[in-house]
Design brief:
The structure is a homodimer of 338-residue chains. Chain A has 338 residues and is of the alpha/beta class. Chain A folds into two domains: 196 residues, Quinone Oxidoreductase, Chain A, domain 1; 134 residues, Rossmann fold. The first copy, chain A, has twelve helices and 19 strands. In chain A, the strands form four sheets. In chain A, strands 3, 5, 6, 9, 10, 18 and 19 form a seven-stranded mixed β-sheet that branches. In chain A, strands 13-12-11-14-15-17 form a six-stranded parallel β-sheet, sandwiched between helices. In chain A, helix 9 links the parallel strand 14 and strand 15. Chain A is globular, with a radius of gyration of 19 Å. Strand 16 of chain A pairs antiparallel with strand 16 of chain B, so a sheet runs across the interface. Chains A, B: Pfam families: ADH_N, ADH_zinc_N. Chains A, B: Keywords: Metal-binding, Oxidoreductase, Zinc. Chains A, B: Its cofactor is Zn(2+).
Amino acid sequence: MRATVLYSPGDVRCVEVEEPRIIEPTDAIIKLSASCICGSDLWPYRGLQPVNEPAHMGHEYCGVVVEVGSAVSTVKPGQFVVGSFVLSCGKCPNCLGGWPSSCVNRQFMSGGQAPIARIPNADGTLVATAEMPPEDLIPSLLAASDVLGTGWYAADAARVQPGCTAVVVGDGAVGLMGVLAAKQLGAERIIAMSRHKPRQELALEYGATHIITERGDEGAAKIRELTNGIGADSVLECVGTQESMMQAVNAARPGGSIGFVGVPHGVSLDGQMLFFAQKNLLGGPAPVRRYLPQFFDLILSRKIDPGKVFDLELPLEDVAEGYKAMDERRAIKTLLRL
Amino acid sequence: MRATVLYSPGDVRCVEVEEPRIIEPTDAIIKLSASCICGSDLWPYRGLQPVNEPAHMGHEYCGVVVEVGSAVSTVKPGQFVVGSFVLSCGKCPNCLGGWPSSCVNRQFMSGGQAPIARIPNADGTLVATAEMPPEDLIPSLLAASDVLGTGWYAADAARVQPGCTAVVVGDGAVGLMGVLAAKQLGAERIIAMSRHKPRQELALEYGATHIITERGDEGAAKIRELTNGIGADSVLECVGTQESMMQAVNAARPGGSIGFVGVPHGVSLDGQMLFFAQKNLLGGPAPVRRYLPQFFDLILSRKIDPGKVFDLELPLEDVAEGYKAMDERRAIKTLLRL
């Protein structure tokens, strides 16, 4: 089959690879309904994360189960499933405690930018819908696999509550999903930090009440203007750089909360600064598996439309252009047709 | 009057100083019932924090109001009061929101190791008891000013809940108060990390159910043994070094919480480490003012006895020996008779 391989920074291609098959009895094989490119795929693409060997890219997926290993009992061939980008066992204390993304047997999904994929630990990772979903909801269900879950976790970790003021740092796909999540969780005011017109528009559509284009000290001053001079209750950090992290810390009020979901690259936090800031901090890979049933309800009842975050659609064969468009910020997020 | 001045690391003395008087209309003057030395006083005493000019030491205090400025309305001469080591206005959004220790007009108390002290922002800082407390409760009421409040905040920030497992890193006075607080907040298991016999004994008396003497990787392994292999729900960091902070991070389970109250000195946290750890982190100066009414209830009804943490009592004149005994870990905490 044809699938996506990253050979070195900037060199990503659709090439012929072997079709995946069941290896462990806990595996499932799925035929993907669609795939996509994640903002985090850009870290190695941009050379900000090492590429030691050719990497099978793609960790966001949904589709129809083709085959399951002998030990799989919760999904069966013919079912439509979505799984988390974190593969989890479903049985360890962290999975049982609601933290599947810190599963003791955690693996990270790869090889999802392809028509067929192997899903290890299928029972702990996949959730099936009650029936085959309508075609037009595939993008939103695909988003549930990571980008929606990650934005939602940012809002959850930032303890967004009804009536609160939330700030979203980062206007990428995850940040936009963070806006959507903050709205769903009842935030009264949602301040999106963005300087890109199309992203501002989508943020407003998803529920942002304010747009701030300034960054750094100026951005922080604008937020304080809107928040009694002290900062926001909840801040969603959706980038992962030192600058964005400090922007998030500065945007929250004392006693407020920061959910950080951009994988930090080169970020270091001074202990005494954090102490005197007196703000809750929680990050990590999103516990998507925990959220999936709720996402199915919201998406299948058409209460949310996370699929709108895909503003470029390409055939898998053109995956390189998909990366390039996102790298150059011409696209928010690329959906790959299979 | 005679009061405590730190001239340079190691050189602390009881010397003649001018008696404080009302300066601002929001001040109160109190006659202290007792004073004490804080673990944080050891940072400059040990030269780990600069001493740029002679410093009037002491930030823990309780006593009787002698005089109030014209703008003070909530306390009056003759009342017994306790105040926080953080002086707070009581009117700013942070004070009103329950975060007096991040008061917009925050000042830190000084000059409390003395018979008489000036308390700025008296209305926002002091709380009076309904009547004059019995003499034997003075040490416990003095503890409420900082050490109890700080240990309590560590448990609160670490989200100790009924039935949870809590770990306390640090067996100083704050750590021991953390044990007491965790017990009060309903922790089922309280694991105190301590290698000092008298401190272990007090920890057990305050409610610790387990003592771990190992540190570093061995200590973390012992904790995992007791916690399903994943770590504790709540960890109270009561030291403030890189080692203790990492011990705390390693002792918590994913999704668990760390309350850090030891003022960090030379502590730096890697963003990616914190991300993959996936643990809640909240530190800062304790919002003691918020807790004081609750502390009064618990202490005056003799439900808790935080005053036991004072295992050395000296006249103010011998304050230098009090610092020395704590520095050499011969004493947990020194009470100063005035």
